[in-house]
Each structure stands twice: as structure tokens, then as C-alpha cells.
Design brief:
Elements (H helix, E strand, L loop, with lengths): L2 H10 L4 H19 L4 E4 L11 E4 L6 E6 L4 H11 L5 E4 L5 H4 L2 H4 L8 E4 H13 L3 H11 L2 E3 L1 H19 L3 H14 L2 H17 L19 H9 L6 H8 L4 H5 L8 H8 L6 E2 L1 E6 L13 E5 L2 E5 L3 E6 L17 H11 L3 E7 L4 E5 L10 H8 L6 E9 L3 E6 L4 E4 L5 E2 H12 L4 H10 L17 H14 L1
Parallel strand pairs: 3-4, 4-5, 5-6
Antiparallel strand pairs: 1-2, 2-3, 7-17, 8-11, 8-16, 9-10, 10-11, 12-13, 12-14, 14-15, 15-16
Length: 487
């Protein structure tokens, strides 16, 4: 007898009927939560009712699903119970094992299109829970079962589903058409249309990420479309996949916005692979650097690590956390007040990465001076600027400076708030923004500079594909003027 079965039998043995019902619901709710850790399980005031659910499952941005608990598992009774509530597309959860023999009909193995009722028993759910620990990718299927599973889910059916999904994932990684096709068939028969589409897109993305083509993916279903957040989160939770090309293919349709919506643990190695392989397609407009103290038990090192925090992408080291966002107002963290930096310190930082500085603003407690050349050339080696700075007192600090990144795109660095942002609508690939912004907004040690180079090692600006963000505003106006003249 399993732990779940023991807990369920113990609940039935409680003498007080109300307490027994409460314990039964608690046991089932716990099992459902184990099947899908993202699900919220709410108990109702009913039990074994013909039309009112015992439990309600809910997820963010997903429809609720009713769960009806049934203690009488005789086939004739189950058939009548299911018929009465079928219109809700519920989960009918049998508290005792279901005898498949009398129920093995097309009605349950191949339910009609539009009938998304799931008839499951305790052991079927337990198999999915056990399988997700041995094969983490099964967690994607177990989550989909609660959201949109259909048909019959007994021990045998659950074992077939778990093994097929696991084999299908490994098959897609190895471009094994047979194993992948078997998983496609299993998925198509056990889930509603939305969950079927999601799971097939997941397998399709793994197939393409492993070097296959969309047209060669087994099955007739259309698997076009980006990988959704739930499937991508499961990829993040899987054992590390150290394959640059795999993650590069997976990540090409992604945006920084879609990545920031993911719920991923800090220690995800696959998140590191995903970000580092796609530094050229993930664009940010703004970033902010905050000083930090190492947390209790945190290893001291000068390395950098990507993580997701407060719906922002963060690059963390032992001394700094740098947050990236697509818009300035999406930097959901307050800046730490600081002074500006000296001109010599700015020039030293700019020289480290040979970053051109096109303009800057110097300030004393009573004066502010803006400095730029007419053509917005690099002023970091301008003798006139150095002579001018010598006329200021030691209280003069650089408040802002504008760095010119590829194609002259301006990055405005505000030193008191340690914030960098693109002027107007300018955005930058993370592979450029991260090292330049950190080098200008902070004073990096040699070890930190080397670690920053390492975490962005896969980024090659020379091979970066041009995007709309690279078009200079002056070019746009010039092009519009020419087109207008031609008309």
C-alpha cells in the first residue's frame, strides 16, 4: 500500500463524518499538488455531490477545473456519474482503483472531440508523481493532465503516458522519429486541444533545437509557434543540457519580455545556457546596478550568474546585481543614491573597454557644465576637456555620460543612480549592454572584468544580425524624406 493509499484509508476510518470528509479532501488535494506544483487547490463545502465539485483547481492565466471525488467505482455507477457532469470537462477522481476492463471502450480510450472529461484513479496520479522525480520532463505532462487531460488515467495508462513522454523528449533530442512519433500519438489522445498543442510545440521546439527541421517533425499536427512559458520553465528545470546550438535554436524567437515572465529557480544551469546562447537576440533598453552583500552561505567568488528576480533579468556577482528591462519604467527596483564619479575615473573606465564617450555633464555644488563636440565624436581623449576639468575643484563629478555603442546608438549613463538607458527608443543586445554598462557604471576588479568577459563569451558583435533597433533615427528621417520626395 502506498503512502497516499494509507493516508486515504486512515481518513475513511475517522469516526466523525465531517472530519473524515475534510481529511479525504486534504489527502487528495495534496496528491494533486504533487502532480502539478503550480496548481492551486481549493476545497468546496460539498462531497460526493452529483453536480457540485469537491475541489477546484486553478492556475494563473488558465481556466479553472472542477474535481469530483467518487467513492463508488463500480463501472455502471461511474458511467452515470460522468454522464451527469460531462459538460464541465471535469476530473472525476476515483478514490479506489478503477477496473479498466468494463471501462475499456472508445468512450474512455478515444473520447469524442469536445469531450475533455478525465476519469482518473489514485494510482494513476501516483504514477505521474513518481515518474516526474525520475524523469523531470514528465512534470510537463503531469501539469497538462490536470489542466486538460481527457479519457482514462489508470496505473497502466499513466505508465504508458509517462514512458512515452520521456522517450519522446529524448527521441526529439536525438532526432529519433519513431520515439517522437509515439509520444505525439500518446499526447494527441490524452489531452484537450490547447494542451495537445502546447506539448507538441514543446517536442517540436526540442526537435528543431536539436538540429531537425519543422517539416520533418513526426506527426500531422501543426507545431508552428513559439515555445510557451510553461514548457520553457520545464526546460529550465531539467538536468543541465550543455549544448550551445540547442539553446541557441530554442532561444531565437524569445524576447527579454518573455524571459522575464518565467518562474525559474536561481540555481538553474539551463537558464545560464539559454541566456548566454542568445545574447544577440535578447534586447534591453535600460539597466540598473545595485551594490549587494553576499548572502549567508553564499560562496565568495568574482563570477557572474544570470537569474530572474522581480520579473527582471538580473546579472549577479558577489558585489553587484544588475537588472535589465525593455523599458525604463520596468526597472522595478529603486536606485541606491550615490555621487557621480570623477572625470578621470570615467575616462579610466571608458578606456578599459575602449568605449567612445560622445558627451558628458560635470557638476559642482553650484555649477553644471555639459560638454560635447559638434559631431558627437569621442571626447574621451580630448585635451580641451582635460584642461577644462582642471579648472574645477575636487568637488566636480560627472553626473551623466553618453556612450556610443555600435552604429552610434547612444547609451545614457546616470552615475548617481547607476542607471543606463537608451536614448529615445534605442535598445541594445545584452551581449553589448551588459559588459559596457557594468564597466562604466561600476569599478570592476581585474577578476570581475575577466568573469564578465566569460559570461558573455558566446556573444560576437561582428556576427550579430542587424535588427530594427540598430537603425539610426537620422537614417530613418533621411529615408522618409527621400521617399517623400520620390512620391
Amino acid at each position: 500500500m502506498t503512502d497516499f493509499s494509507s493516508a486515504l484509508h486512515a481518513a475513511f476510518d475517522v469516526l466523525d463524518p465531517r472530519e473524515a470528509v475534510n481529511r479525504i479532501k486534504n489527502v487528495v488535494a495534496h496528491e494533486l499538488s504533487q502532480t502539478d506544483t503550480r496548481a492551486r487547490v481549493t476545497k468546496t463545502d460539498f462531497f460526493n455531490h452529483s453536480f457540485a465539485p469537491d475541489l477546484v483547481l486553478s492556475w494563473p492565466n488558465e481556466r479553472e477545473r472542477f474535481v469530483f471525488l467518487k467513492s463508488d467505482t463500480r463501472p455502471a455507477v461511474l458511467r452515470d456519474d460522468v454522464a451527469a457532469i460531462r459538460k464541465h470537462d471535469p476530473i472525476v477522481f476515483a478514490l479506489d482503483p478503477v477496473d479498466e476492463g468494463p471501462l475499456t471502450t472508445d468512450e474512455y480510450q478515444n473520447p469524442e472531440h469536445g469531450d475533455d472529461t478525465l476519469l482518473a484513479d489514485t494510482r494513476g496520479m501516483e504514477v505521474l508523481i513518481e515518474s516526474r522525480f525520475s524523469e523531470p520532463v514528465v512534470g510537463l505532462a503531469s501539469s497538462a493532465v490536470l489542466q486538460g487531460g481527457r479519457g482514462l488515467l489508470t496505473e497502466r495508462e499513466a505508465e504508458a503516458m509517462a514512458s512515452s513522454v520521456a522517450a519522446g523528449f529524448n527521441g526529439a533530442k536525438q532526432l529519433d522519429a519513431g520515439a517522437t512519433a509515439a509520444a505525439v500519438a500518446q499526447i494527441s489522445g490524452h489531452f484537450d486541444q490547447r494542451r495537445t498543442s502546447r506539448l507538441l510545440r514543446f517536442l517540436g521546439a526540442v526537435w528543431v533545437g536539436s538540429g531537425g527541421t519543422a517539416s520533418s517533425f513526426p506527426g500531422e499536427q501543426d507545431v508552428a509557434g513559439d515555445l510557451d512559458g510553461t514548457a520553457l520553465e520545464f526546460l529550465m528545470e531539467l538536468p543541465p543540457i550543455d549544448d550551445f546550438e540547442f539553446w541557441r535554436r530554442i532561444g531565437r524567437p524569445l524576447t527579454l519580455e518573455s524571459v522575464c515572465q518565467l518562474q525559474v529557480e536561481d540555481d538553474s544551469e539551463n537558464l545560464q545556457h539559454l541566456i548566454e546562447s542568445n545574447l544577440d537576440v535578447l534586447h534591453a533598453r535600460a539597466c540598473r546596478v545595485l551594490e549587494r552583500q553576499p548572502e549567508l552561505g553564499e560562496e565568495e567568488n568574482s563570477g557572474f550568474r544570470w537569474l530572474l528576480e522581480r520579473q527582471m533579468l538580473c546579472l549577479r556577482s558577489a558585489r553587484f546585481s544588475t537588472y535589465f528591462a525593455s523599458k525604463v519604467d520596468e526597472l522595478k527596483i529603486e536606485p541606491q543614491d550615490a555621487e557621480g564619479i570623477s572625470l578621470r575615473e570615467l575616462l579610466r573606465r571608458a578606456e578599459q573597454r575602449r568605449t567612445p564617450i560622445s558627451e558628458l555633464e560635470l557638476a559642482t555644488p553650484t555649477r553644471t557644465v555639459s560638454y560635447a563636440t559638434v559631431n558627437r565624436d569621442d571626447i574621451s581623449h580630448d585635451e580641451e576637456l582635460l584642461r577644462l576639468s582642471n579648472t574645477f575643484s575636487s568637488t566636480a563629478f560627472v553626473q551623466t555620460a553618453v556612450a556610443s555603442l555600435f552604429g552610434g546608438r547612444p547609451l545614457v549613463c546616470d552615475f548617481p543612480s547607476r542607471t543606463g538607458k537608451g536614448r529615445t527608443a534605442a535598445k541594445f543586445p545584452l551581449g553589448t549592454l551588459a559588459p559596457v554598462a557594468l564597466s562604466l557604471l561600476t569599478s570592476l576588479t581585474t577578476e570581475e572584468s575577466q568573469a564578465l568577459e566569460y559570461v558573455t563569451r558566446h556573444y560576437n558583435e561582428a556576427s550579430r544580425q542587424p535588427t530594427l533597433f540598430d537603425i539610426d533615427e537620422g537614417d530613418i528621417r533621411s529615408s522618409e524624406h527621400k521617399n517623400h520626395g520620390e512620391v
